[in-house]
Fold this sequence. Notes:
Helices cover 59% and strands 4% of the residues. Residues 209-255 and 262-271 have low confidence and may be disordered. By secondary structure, the protein is mostly helical. The two termini are 50 Å apart. The chain has helices at 2-5, 10-22, 25-50, 58-76, 78-103, 107-130, 161-178, 180-190, 192-197, 220-226, 267-279, and strands spanning 151-153, 158-159, 240-242, 249-251. It is built from eleven helices and four strands; from the N terminus they run ααααααββααααββα.
Amino acid sequence: MSVFAGSNRPKYSRALLVREAFGGTDRIAATLAAATPLLFTGLATAIAFRAGVFNVGVEGGFVFGGLIGATVALHAGLLAGLVAGALAGLLVSALPGWLKARWNVDEVVTTLMFNFVAAGVTGWLVTAFLQAKGVANSATPLIPPSSWLPDLLPPYGLTSAVLIALALVALYAVWIKHSVLGYELRQTGLNPRFAAAQGIRVSGNATDEPETRPPRLCDVHAVTWATSDRPLHEPRQPGRTESKTTGHIHRKTGAKPWRPTRPTRSTHEDFAWSARTWSSRPRGM
């Protein structure tokens, strides 16, 4: 959009953009080759975003995983290099994930900072231990051709990595929509409290930050009301006072605040009932 807005000839700019991206076999191959790493990193980001985690540290995992994968493939072959690269990328995201789950540390800050840490460690490993002999620039030795991915268009550098990326995208779409684990991941990202009440294993810190999440009908107050045994519409009685700070009504005699009675129903019906109870609660609650 910035190219079109800043150009005196927008029609020419659009035509040039389309021609350079798709104007021939070599251009299409170059476009697909450039899009391949974006497909992998975008897929990694999508999985985290679906879980409600704003992971912006994919770049660090991509750089560090590429170094480890290339180094292992140099000595142990293609398959070992692919596995090692994936595990290295997992390692880069493991510590921010643990900090988020254990102490609720903001994942945007930690993953963004780990991009620089991973890039610095990668550069240090190359210059200190893995640099190719007789090369002035920071570069590792070339991987032998036996460990290369098969070429799709040999003169243009497009490999079968793009097919692997597209297959993983299709697999992700099926997994996130039609699998139990994908359902649990989506529910956790949409509402961790509701997911935990459904029996999905959720980190305790993910449900302890109501000030950072929009209000839900099935909030903790609706859940606590649903698990009590008070009448559904208990009328106010003399001697009750309303707290100005919490909005809860308490007896001066120390009795429990008003809570409705939960009928015996399934989990999904309980939460639907909790939502109706919240909307029909007495004024002041």
